[in-house]
Fold:
Amino acid sequence: MPEATMTANTGAVRTGTQELSLNKAINAALADALEENPRALVLGEDVGRLGGVFRITDGLQERFGAERVFDTPLAESGILGMSVGLAMAGYHPIPEVQFDGFTYPAVNQIVTQIARMNFRTRGALPMPITLRMPSFGGIQSPELHSESLEWLFAHVAGLKVVSPSNPHQAYHLLRHAATMPDPVVFMEPKSRYWQKGSVDFDTPGDLTGSVVAREGRHLTLVAWGAMVSRCLQVADMAAEDGVEVEVLDLRWLKPIDAEGLARSVARTRRAVVVHEAPKSAGLGAEVAQLITEHCFGTLKAPVERVTGFDVPFPSGSLENEYLPNADRILFGIQRVLEYRRG
Amino acid sequence: MSVTATPAATGALELDPQRLQADELKRLLAQMITVRHLDTSAIAWQRQGIIPGYAPMQGQEAAQVGSIAALDMTRDFVFPTYREMGAAYAAGVDMAEYMATHKATWNGGLHDPVKYRFTPIQTVIAGSALHAVGWAHGQRLDALREGREQTDLPASLIYLGDGASSQGDIHEAMNFAGVFKTPTVFFVQNNGWAISVPTEHQVAGGSVAARGAGYGLPSVAVDGNDVEAVVRAARAAVAHARSGAGAVVVEAFTYRRGPHSTSDDPGRYRSLEDERRDAGPDPIERLAERLIAADELTESEVRELWADAAAFEERTREAVAAQGPRPGAEMFEYVYQETTPVLQQQAAQWREESDHA
Structure:
């Protein structure tokens, strides 16, 4: 075992503005969360000395000690089950599951225990657990390293689910999640880990609900995580043809910001929802239904979905065939714009 | 009475050397009689329609009452399954609140797990084992934070059965406990049956305790129908855990004398003859006979214990029967610490469209 000491906190967190890649922004958020809350803990596979396979936890063990930032044995159910007990003991665990697809062995602990413990105990044993997982495809990784699990966790009562799309949001949403008294599944867009952006540490902005990532008046593209930057590219391309696309970054996948959706689509009267997960029973269906409920009278076309297919996420050489690319999203936009009531 | 301890292949833990005094044994007998009466009564409550279902623990009284006797309920924490009514009683949990889960009032029970240091009833087999390890690791971290020596730690006790030993979470929990040296007691009640499947078809190698060696955990196997043996094994285990030396496996061999649940029909998988042969001596009769033979107890005192148990059962039954359903609004109230707009909207709609406003 490492040296048995606990590092004292200074409580000092970052201020000012800094240009950071998304992975560095998450690293900064973890450091500040550990600094701010002496009961915050980081645990997972290889998060200690190695700093995580994506280096998200780089330097944290050195700074906060091996008691607060620690490697676990290689067992995802163990990581999440242990987090339940640590939460019961008054800690705020921030476990990392190394890759999205390896959350499956821990689904029992997440669904039957973490999500229900507050309910089961009538609030006596809350579960302040911030579960980080590198998510989505886009880096040609091996099987089960590219999953989009919002379809699963957004359906589970008792969980909250969020996915940031840029470094500023990644920093502030994680800081926010790490102070929440409820379990939060934090889905990191791994293909955007190296994308840089300005992080204003002093100005988090509203951290609830969705944000308009780009304004436009002809159509709303709804996306989250890694698909937001793709949709922003698509909006640039559409603009060349005179189509003004609004990009709504949903951010919170549970609860979904129905008002934000309604506000945007009430103006644009058309919507396309984009996600990487398979289409059938995906979150796009929920988004489309919420838009229908709130905007049926003003909609000029049915809500279109541009998503992954109902196939297992394929090997890296086929991933660009599977993932919604710019062309497929543009086709979706075209279908909505050209829709005529029969 | 013999006190049996079957050492595991390696890392065998010795029983606590201290024999139990007669007054301690009489107190344990009173608890065992109380829970026996409550347990058999709960089956009757189900037949009478007072509760919709129940998971009896008859035969496991010594294992449950004896293991709790080794704990300090002001600082240790218990992680039960759904068959630990005897442990709950011995730990001081309010029994009407505990029975609320069987009354279908609230899943997990209405008892406050923090006040009683006794987590809710767990329906997922092996679901709590890792929680017990995590909680115990938290005790080590607390000691570090507060600069205390790691030699007098609060301990967690996790109950599991022979069936649970087949679950992967038990492997993960024992391995994590071994790696992190958490103050955890894995208390196995090997009651011979996982619903209809007997231990020999469940536990390869025949002993869960023997598996402790593979995780570097000392272990002890005891006659789970001998309350003194159980107490001494559990005390040794708790002392080991408290000392900072890490986790322990205790395997108490007992017998599930009743059905798995009030919906079960044991006649489909075992005969009365099997039960008579395999159950062994009744843990309650055995202890009472021993105390009577030693002139520490009289027949009339035993009758008084049963009368006290009947009075306790009556009070508990009245409290359980009087339990009405919880207000439907609680469905929405306890999902989160901080509710969500979506849930508030659903709750508002429920109020508007139902008679429960």
About this structure: The domain at 211-338 of chain A is CATH 3.40.50.920 (Rossmann fold). Chain A has a mean pLDDT of 96.
